[in-house]
Design goal:
Layout: E1 7-13, E2 21-26, E3 44-47, H1 48-66, E4 72-78, E5 82-84, H2 95-105, H3 116-126, H4 131-134, E6 145-152, H5 157-179, E7 198-207, E8 218-223, E9 228-236, H6 240-252, E10 254-265, E11 273-283, H7 296-301, E12 303-308, E13 324-329, H8 335-345, E14 350-354, E15 363-371, E16 374-379, H9 405-414, H10 425-438, H11 459-462, H12 470-488, H13 499-502, H14 509-526, H15 531-545, H16 551-562, H17 581-587, H18 598-603, H19 612-619
Parallel strand pairs: 1-4, 1-6, 6-7, 7-9, 10-12
Antiparallel strand pairs: 2-3, 4-5, 8-9, 10-11, 11-13, 12-14, 13-16, 14-15, 15-16
């Protein structure tokens, strides 16, 4: 219930070493005109302490912007003693309290001290319950986990190893203390000590820009039987803010979206505009379904979405019916980020689209909007009404361009569903759809009989009917006799194909006619639900068994067998049938059934009472 990111403790080294320069000069000489006698301003450098504080505070800004509650951060400043700047109380989880505590600590002063006392105090802080943990019943069990980010500077790997050993010993002692009987609070204060089930310790060794470090990076290593995971990272002071900005992403399952192509007015020239890019941070769940469209490098860094406001619309907020996630800019101090935030806070919303590929349409994916003074991002469900229709060649079937689109429209017209009356209406509708889709080729190149035009008329039109009269059966029999005559004349069915399918269906004459008869039998068999249809099927089957005789004899046989009710029905082992529309429908993934309303399930046969807890709150 309580993940590792529920508790985070920063340990900031406040020893004299952190008062030295970071050796990363910042130019303050921004004057445009330099006349005679102008004395340029010298560059300044931040101290290691300033770099550490700025990076840690920026880490907290991202966490507190995206998680107003549930993700708590504490600060411990370590020099000759451990200065605890805040507690787990919600009232102390804000910038005002934190910056006031840092002001009281003051700059780095001369004197002895180290990061050991601060690290031990941080482990003890993880053993203190948060408000949510203290509110749980005493007999409830939960995992107490947390993370410590220790920003320090050590001489070598031995010093780091010694610091880690002290942390492991302190953790073991903390758990031994938590296993002892707890004293009963007298004044109402909670003095409970929790056992720490897991602690993720990240030691960040900070060095000036021009100083070589003898500390090496160490990957995550489990220690103390899995109670502590230790990670060592070496970083220059100028790169510390960027490092913590990257660490916060996996710590809280966040992701970065780069909003590109934002039109903004130039600061120097208000009449001209330029396009800028702004990086925003939000929950990684907002990128669900987009990672497959990105390259491997983009997937590890950010997802690029393009600014797009559709014509005739103030944005795409109306199309967002799913969950929303809070958003915060990655660089809150930049002018493009400030302009984007002000634009959204003024009540505007922005549609974001995936960068279009060559030959592809526009695809709106997300929307940015402000609500309640906070920024939100939401994923648009399905295609936006402003999107271009997708190309058939980009569909699930791959680069296929010869779909029977016109015929599929006719199939839908023939199988419209209407509210039916009487028993069995739904069963009849399903049976009709089953018959019409059992054999229905999806593409032009996968069929011969549906490309032969007037040669197969009226068989392909009449056989799909619910019933056949004797006259209609006779017309279908005439089509079969015409096919026999064509085969007897050694005609090829391929010349009747359109140009798109002619090359794919080319082959020997015997193979083409074998496919024609197999398709015809598959079509009639799919609709063989009445005696007239079954008589037509028997005629086809007998014709195939006498496929080597001449056309006249076959015509006589087909005439005789269709009139005999005792004619045998042969097997369908030789029926040629490609993947039909029914196969595609049955093979498609089906959505999970939406669970029933919990209140209705709990009520059973009685009426469900909504918001019953409100009455309980009034009684208490």
């Amino acid at each position: 219930m309580f993940p590792t990111n529920h508790k985070t403790v920063f340990v900031l080294d406040h020893t004299p070493y952190f008062g030295i320069s970071s050796e990363n000069p910042i130019d303050f000489d921004v004057a445009k005109s330099r006349g005679p006698g102008y004395v340029p301003l010298p560059a300044v450098c931040k101290s290691l302490w300033t770099c550490s504080v700025e990076a840690a505070v920026e880490y907290c800004r991202i966490v507190w912007d995206l998680f107003p509650e549930g993700k708590l951060v504490r600060f411990v400043v370590s020099d000759f003693a451990a200065h605890i700047l805040n507690t787990w109380a919600i009232s102390q989880q804000n910038f005002t309290h934190l910056l006031n505590g840092l002001c009281l600590v003051g700059p780095v002063r001369r004197g002895a001290g180290g990061d050991v006392v601060g690290l031990c105090a941080a482990i003890e802080a993880l053993g203190e319950p948060t408000g949510v943990q203290a509110a749980r019943p005493p007999d409830s069990l939960f995992q107490n986990r947390g993370r410590i980010l220790c920003i320090t500077s050590a001489r070598d790997d031995d010093s780091i190893r010694s610091l880690i050993d002290i942390a492991v010993n302190t953790l073991v002692q903390q758990n031994q203390k938590a296993s002892e009987p707890q004293p009963t609070p007298i004044d109402g204060t909670n003095t409970q000590t929790l056992a720490i089930h897991y602690c993720h310790l990240i030691v960040i060794n900070v060095t000036p820009e021009k100083t070589d470090s003898r500390v090496t990076n160490q990957p995550l290593t489990e220690m103390a039987g899995g109670l502590m995971g230790v990670e060592v990272i070496v970083c220059r002071a100028s790169l510390l803010a960027g490092l913590l900005g990257r660490l916060v992403l996996p710590h809280y399952r966040l992701a970065i979206t780069t909003v590109t192509g934002i039109p903004m007015k130039e600061e120097q020239n208000a009449t001209s505009s330029a396009n800028y890019d702004v990086e925003i941070i939000h929950s990684a769940e907002a990128h669900a379904g987009l990672r497959a469209a990105q390259t491997a490098a983009e997937a590890t860094e950010s997802v690029v979405l393009r600014w797009w406001t559709p014509r005739g619309s103030e944005g795409g907020a109306g199309g967002c019916h799913g969950p929303l996630w809070r958003v915060t800019p990655a660089d809150a101090a930049s002018r493009p980020s400030a302009c984007l935030v002000n634009f959204l806070l003024n009540g505007r919303s922005v549609t974001l689209e995936l960068p279009s590929k060559k030959g592809g349409g526009r695809s709106a994916s997300h929307v940015l909007a402000a609500q309640g003074g906070e920024l939100w991002i939401g994923a648009l469900g399905g295609r936006s009404p402003h999107d271009d229709p997708p190309a058939l060649s980009e569909g699930a079937g791959g680069r296929v361009t010869d779909y029977r689109i016109k015929e599929f429209g006719a199939l839908m017209q023939q199988n419209r569903l209407y509210p039916g009356r009487g028993a069995g209406a739904n069963t009849r509708a399903r049976a009709r759809l089953q018959r019409h889709t059992t054999y229905w080729p999806l593409t032009i190149s996968s069929t011969l009989i549906f490309n032969m035009g007037s040669v197969m008329e009226p068989l392909t039109r009449l056989v799909v009917q619910e019933s056949l009269s004797e006259e209609e059966v006779e017309q279908c029999r005439g089509v079969l006799m015409s096919l026999l005559a064509m085969e007897a004349r050694h005609d090829l069915p391929a010349p009747h194909l359109p140009a798109a399918a002619r090359g794919k269906s080319s082959g020997r004459r015997e193979e083409q006619w074998r496919q024609v008869w197999s398709e015809a039998e598959a079509l009639v068999r799919a609709h063989a639900a009445t005696p007239a249809h079954r008589a037509l099927l028997r005629a086809l089957q007998v014709t195939r068994t006498h496929n080597n005789s001449d056309g006249d004899s076959r015509a006589t046989v087909i005439k005789a067998t269709t009139d005999s009710p005792l004619s045998p029905v042969s097997g369908a082992a030789d029926v040629w049938a490609p993947r039909s529309a029914l196969d595609a429908l049955l093979g498609a993934p089906r959505p999970h059934r939406r669970p029933d309303f919990a209140g209705r399930m709990a009520a059973g046969n009685r009426p469900a009472t909504l918001y019953s807890h409100l009455q309980n709150d009034e009684q208490h």
